[in-house]
């Protein structure tokens, strides 16, 4: 079976290097819009003329969006390699085996993957390429020129922790969230992982701050766990000196919180617009957050999932000791997008993201208040992750069954 990276170009055009169209991270820029502002050749009228320019074969799937910089394309594969190929013809420039390069052994938290691998878009950081490992939770920096290792830093030593978010580089620093596969273990083992956002010095890999999304559980089961930060890349608001994120669901909650849910007769809304007495202020699951770039302090947050303790094993209703429902698995599988809109004749700066429940939320960048919301899907298991993109003045979402 072939696993390939494909490049399609207009058959009527001659390829020339276009460094102005570099793609430096998953989101494309600090706004996380995934919109090629400088792309002028591909349009609804010309898209039918796209033809295969080249293909590159890897040992396994290539699922990350490639990054592109100065005529080179960078991407990881599930075969455990990090690749650099020529943008012009797809020929190999270099490849590095992540396990051999770093000495990091896979924790095998991703099913059917027994090598050290990455699923994230590599981030261009001056002369470096920075990428996260899909277990254990390391971030690795290599030289753009040859893939030589510069540094590697472990962000979380939890055995199920991993990096699935593609980070953002700004002003000499790298911002990325931590995730895990702990919700897929047996219910008897669940759960202690806590999601966090981390700022690193891009040159050295030193952790400058780390902000957790839940209270410390001190490694004890039966407390708060979950709230992973696991999709796309976090946008940077230079004017406000903020970074924005959106978080995942809980894996577990304290007994007093599950008791609260049962007292409410499991009435948590899929998309609450009111406060939920079962959601404590320091529970930042299913939330938008704005964090100060310098300190990592939370400036504002808005919880949008209510009580949501989702665990894979509990899809089987016969499993004992599962938390009370409805547990809609309503986490955010992507970081917010930064936009400016017009409201009653005035401009308003917002962040927008789509929840796996199908709801689209737009929040005020200054205080986190809801500007508007709408629903895209409300069908079981028709979730939306990694899929929001800005096209001119329209946000497009693509459903993904998970």
Automatic annotation (TrEMBL):
UniProt KW Oxidoreductase keyword: yes
Signal peptide residue numbers: 1-20
Keyword Transcription part of the UniProt annotation: no
Cofactor: pyrroloquinoline quinone
InterPro entries, alphabetized: PQQ_b-propeller_rpt, PQQ_rpt_dom, Quinoprotein_ADH-like_sf
SUPFAM superfamilies linked: Quinoprotein alcohol dehydrogenase-like (SSF50998)
Domain Pyrrolo-quinoline quinone repeat, first and last residues per copy: 54-300
Keywords of the record: Oxidoreductase, Signal
GO molecular function, one term: oxidoreductase activity
Pfam families reported in the protein's UniProt record: PQQ_2 (PF13360)
Domain of life: Eukaryota
Recorded family membership: Belongs to the bacterial PQQ dehydrogenase family.
Protein's UniProt name: Pyrrolo-quinoline quinone repeat domain-containing protein
Lineage, top ranks: Eukaryota, Viridiplantae, Streptophyta, Embryophyta, Tracheophyta
